[in-house]
Amino acid sequence: MRAVVLVGGFGTRLQPLTLSTPKQMLPIIDRPMIERVLGSLNAHGVTDAVLALGYRPDAFLDAYPDGHCAGVELHYAVESEPLDTAGAVRFAALSGGIDDTFIVVNGDVLTDLDLTELWNFHKGHDAEGTIALTPVDDPSRYGVVPTADDGRVLEFVEKPAPGTAPTNWINAGTYILEASVLDRIADGRRVSIERETFPAMVAERSLYALHSDAYWIDAGTPVTYLDSQLDLIDGVRGSAERAVHETATILQGAVIDHSVVMAGVVVESGAVIRNSVLLPGSRIGADAHVLHSVIGAGAEVGAGSEVLDYTVVGNSRDVPAGVRLEGARVPEGS
Which pTM does this prediction carry? Predict the structure, then answer.
């Protein structure tokens, strides 16, 4: 079984963490996000994946020089210019020599979707394409997908205005596609799979969808990047994962509450860390408070500072002692 993994975006929603690191290479507790995505694919029989790369392809090539990750053999398709979602799928699939049914996933989505069930549904309905659907409270940020009773997609509404969506079931960013879909995608220009390819397939009654209540999160924003990790330590997705790395140093009097503390982190006496994520090698000064925030790798929060309300501190950046940050980005403007 083969897959295309879309990892070419700039990750602007997660800046400043992504100013130098692709978001799929950001750590989720103890390993890069891409390793969790590929591990989930491998658990359902995927042995070969093409990474559709754009931004900082060297980060992936350097991390996996032998072309293997999480039990999956990797191929790299590096876009010379952005091709949008369908263009990226076509470029990657052709680069990897894909000529049969294949899987497409977004590299910033973490899910417990039953990919085997999706594959069997696709084959059982003789579909040209099948989309996994997931329910959300606010569908206005996503592609909304109403279906007939047999799963055939009736319409594909990309990011409807608030309050106008015909359903709250959205495109979950996982697809099973026949190779014939590649012929639908124009060469040499940007093509959106959501705005062009899927609506054309709907018109020809060849696109189906399967509803799933399985765990699903788009980990591409500060809030969801944080929540995806707290879910893991809470056991939402199975056995609870370790929250504090064995190489972290927590000094006497420091409080760690419902937070992820990664390798090599130092938390000094009197500091309070609550509902937050501290990336590897960061340091929290004495009596500092970090609440609902993300501290980048190698960053330092000065003594007595307050870092609050989904503040994101970039890698190797410093927060001066005694300051208060709420919903901030360090450096500013990122």
Answer: 0.94
